[in-house]
């Protein structure tokens, strides 16, 4: 009953509307914004430039806040400042972006300027490409300059699944994902973008302010395609001549109408940036797939009766040996420990996976190594906002706190109506308080201008307009 009341409260809260100043520009007529349960829901509709303008106008304050937080955090992560990323975005990425998305980014800049925020298109490209630039391109440069120095600390913490057939309660597709990152960035991963483009499919995704793609990636498309992913940890490789990952990911969200379409779009011009295990479902055929996409290697698995899971481990031996530094026999590695947990969860919930059990799975905090529930790097809904414990790790992030910052779940039945459940904050229900953290860890006080409390909000059902 308590869970039911919390869900009802969240749904009622969704009716509360955040109001930007009443727009006079006709480009804003079809757009809207609502703030609820820690999320900012935006509806964008029209031409690429109009969609961009609506985005920049409705999220102007949040985009500026995100860029400022990255100006603070990126030097700690990569040793490179914002000017570096701005320059690389201009020289390496801009001319590889489809004209449609160049127009959308230009529109975002115009929307920002309408709210007195002064940025250019290369700021927005750097923002969209921040993961692949800071965690793939920069380590590649380090490796070139000093062989052996570019060990890529590719992110490796999110957990996701896609299931169908005998694994789900109704035999249809269910898909879920939780996003694990540092809290300073993660508290800003709180946008749900409902986009009706001039061309391609209507789609809904979670994202950060200013992104034209999801980034962590969770997409529900009116074309019947459901998308999520988890990163391949300890991955090495990047091709400067390739198409940015964020461009391919957005294109796949908008234009893929089949699993074949998705694979073709993601592999064409692949630059190796943000190498992932992509989990995809096609509600029209009830088929699911896993695309493990490195730089040199990729492999596709497909089925109409099964489950694919991700916790940052590669499944293809060739890719693992050639493109990562992972030790698959190290049981204390977070990716391996969570893989082991996934094996148990998929067996325990076989035949019962739906939206409700999906929430339970993505909220799981049981550590297979210690046989206990805990806050650590080795659980599905992980946390490292206390002293890391229970899981000796190959590397710790250059700054924390961090952990699971949000989660999403949908099913084929919900997706038919463009609906999904979303949870802002750690889905285990444990919130984060900044003041006690800084008191215990004054060495991270530099984060205080942009690191705030992160409450765990209730699961909330969102629906496209």
Mean pLDDT: 91
How many distinct folded domains? Answer: 2
Q: If you compute it from the alpha carbons, what radius of gyration comes out, rounded to the nearest whole angstrom? A: 20 Å
Q: Output the structural class.
A: alpha+beta
Tally of separate helices = 15
Major beta sheet summary: 9 strands, mixed
- Spatial order of strands in the largest sheet: 1-2-5-6-7-8-9-10-11
Percent strand equals 15-25%
Task: Indicate the overall shape.
Answer: globular
Task: Give the N-to-C terminal Cα separation.
Answer: 29 Å
CATH topology of the largest domain: Penicillin V Acylase, Chain A
Q: What level of helicity do the residues show?
A: 25-40%
Describe the structure.
This protein is an alpha+beta fold. The chain folds into two domains: 107 residues, Orthogonal Bundle (Penicillin Amidohydrolase, domain 1); 305 residues, Penicillin V Acylase, Chain A. The chain is built from 15 helices and 17 strands. The strands form three sheets. Strands 1-2-5-6-7-8-9-10-11 form a nine-stranded mixed beta sheet, covered by helices on one side. Helix content is 34%, strand content 22%. The relative contact order is 0.14. The N terminus is likely disordered. The longest helix has 19 residues.
List the helices and strands and how they pair.
Blueprint: H1 2-13, E1 32-36, E2 39-46, H2 48-58, H3 60-78, H4 82-93, H5 99-114, H6 121-128, H7 130-145, E3 159-164, E4 174-182, H8 183-186, E5 191-197, E6 203-207, E7 218-221, E8 225-231, H9 245-255, H10 259-267, E9 276-282, E10 287-293, E11 298-303, E12 306-310, H11 317-323, H12 334-348, H13 355-362, E13 366-367, E14 372-373, E15 402-411, H14 412-416, E16 419-424, H15 434-440, E17 460-463
Helix pairs in contact: 2-5, 4-6, 9-10
């Amino acid at each position: 009953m308590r869970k039911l009341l919390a869900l009802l409260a969240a749904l009622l809260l969704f009716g509360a509307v955040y109001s930007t100043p009443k727009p006079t520009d006709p480009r804003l007529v079809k757009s809207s914004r609502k703030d609820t349960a820690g999320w900012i829901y935006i509806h964008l509709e029209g031409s690429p430039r109009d969609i961009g303008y609506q985005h920049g106008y409705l999220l102007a304050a949040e985009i500026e806040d995100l860029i400022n937080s990255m100006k603070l955090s990126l030097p700690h992560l990569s040793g490179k400042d914002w000017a570096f990323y701005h320059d690389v975005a201009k020289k390496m990425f801009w001319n590889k972006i489809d004209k449609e998305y160049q127009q959308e980014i230009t529109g975002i800049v115009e929307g920002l300027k309408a709210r007195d925020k002064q940025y250019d298109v290369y700021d927005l490209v750097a923002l969209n490409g921040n993961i692949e630039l800071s965690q793939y391109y920069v380590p590649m440069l380090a490796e070139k300059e000093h062989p052996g120095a570019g060990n890529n600390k590719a992110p490796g913490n999110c957990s996701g699944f896609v299931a169908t057939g005998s694994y789900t309660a109704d035999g249809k597709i269910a898909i879920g994902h939780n996003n694990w990152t540092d809290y300073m960035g993660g508290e800003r991963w709180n946008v749900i973008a409902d986009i009706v483009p001039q061309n391609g499919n209507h789609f809904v995704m979670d994202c950060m302010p200013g992104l034209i793609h999801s980034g962590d990636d969770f997409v529900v498309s009116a074309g019947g395609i459901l998308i999520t992913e988890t990163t391949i940890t300890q991955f090495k490789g990047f091709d400067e001549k390739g198409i940015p990952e964020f461009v391919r990911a957005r294109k796949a969200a908008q234009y893929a109408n089949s699993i074949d379409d998705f694979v073709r779009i993601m592999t064409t011009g692949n630059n190796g940036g943000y190498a992932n295990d992509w989990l995809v479902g096609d509600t029209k055929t009830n088929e699911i797939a896993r695309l493990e996409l490195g730089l040199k290697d990729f492999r596709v698995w497909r089925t109409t009766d099964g489950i694919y899971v991700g916790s940052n481990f590669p499944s293809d031996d060739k890719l693992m040996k050639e493109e990562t530094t992972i030790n698959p026999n190290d049981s204390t590695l977070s990716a391996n420990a969570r893989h082991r947990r996934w094996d148990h969860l998929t067996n325990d919930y076989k035949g019962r996976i739906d939206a409700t059990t999906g929430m339970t799975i993505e909220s799981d905090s049981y550590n297979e190594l210690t046989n206990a529930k805990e806050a650590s790097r080795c659980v599905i809904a992980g946390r490292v906002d206390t002293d890391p414990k229970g899981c000796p790790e190959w590397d710790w992030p250059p700054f924390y706190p961090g952990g699971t910052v949000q989660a999403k779940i949908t099913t084929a039945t919900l997706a038919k109506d463009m609906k999904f459940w979303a949870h802002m904050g750690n889905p285990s229900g444990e919130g984060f308080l900044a003041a006690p953290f800084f008191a215990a860890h004054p060495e991270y006080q530099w984060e205080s201008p942009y690191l705030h409390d992160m409450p765990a909000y209730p699961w909330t059902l969102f629906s496209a307009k």
